[in-house]
Amino acid sequence: MLKLTKREREGWLRIEDVKNFPRQELRKMDQLWVKYSNGKFGFSVQKQIWLELGGKLDGLVDWDTYIKLGDRVGWRKNGDWLSYDSYTFSTNAPTGHLPEFGGRRLQGECGAGVGGCTTLFSSLDYNP
């Protein structure tokens, strides 16, 4: 995603990068995650969890649901956000654990990471 948005040097995406990310590429990436994890990982899997937790796809900041998502998919432990190198990169990880993109990767003004989450999920306007 960083390469396609020419943000490799920065190492993070802005809200506008997520909004302008090519949907066809996003779908392809998601479909590969879903396929090769047997439905356990992918943006669409995370989107489904987000919706189950009561999240909306309005692009607005929803910190409460974002925290619930982090707890559910294993991005948080004992109330703290995990660092990227503490993630579980295997199929033993909780459903939705990967790919990680979260607020720490979608930076910008306060709350942009959470807004980026709903922006990304809104771009997945298909069923994998």
Automatic annotation (TrEMBL):
<dbReference type="InterPro" id="IPR037215">
    <property type="entry name" value="GUN4-like_sf"/>
</dbReference>
<feature type="domain" description="GUN4-like">
    <location>
        <begin position="1"/>
        <end position="102"/>
    </location>
</feature>
<dbReference type="Pfam" id="PF05419">
    <property type="entry name" value="GUN4"/>
</dbReference>
<protein>
    <submittedName>
        <fullName>GUN4 domain protein</fullName>
    </submittedName>
</protein>
<dbReference type="GO" id="GO:0046906">
    <property type="term" value="F:tetrapyrrole binding"/>
</dbReference>
<dbReference type="InterPro" id="IPR008629">
    <property type="entry name" value="GUN4-like"/>
</dbReference>
<dbReference type="GO" id="GO:0030288">
    <property type="term" value="C:outer membrane-bounded periplasmic space"/>
</dbReference>
